[in-house]
Design a protein that fits this description.
Layout (H helix, E strand, L loop, with lengths): L1 H10 L2 E5 L11 E4 L4 E5 H4 L4 H22 L9 H16 L5
Parallel strand pairs: 1-3
Antiparallel strand pairs: 2-3
Helix pairs in contact: 1-3, 3-4
Length: 102
Amino acid sequence: MIAALELARTYGVSVAFADLGAWGVDELRSEYDAAARAIRLNARVAETLHVDELGEFVALAVGHELYHHREAIGEVPMLPDRRAREFAANAYARDLLRRRVP
């Protein structure tokens, strides 16, 4: 978790919990706001997690949204397919969790 939060700080991206609403069967874990340079983590999801799960949730959600930040600033190319972008963001988050991504 610390690596993801440190990287967010390095990029100048704020991270905060917020109520992102109810999504029914689908679950919105987080969102990136390019205009505000902000990542919002869904407080509703966090509230359902055991304390032992919270760190991984934060790390993966922040890592995922940092990938989208990197797209927004042109650090990585934006893939043409949304599904491919989400897959790449998830892979980046998992790699960051393992501390293999700078």
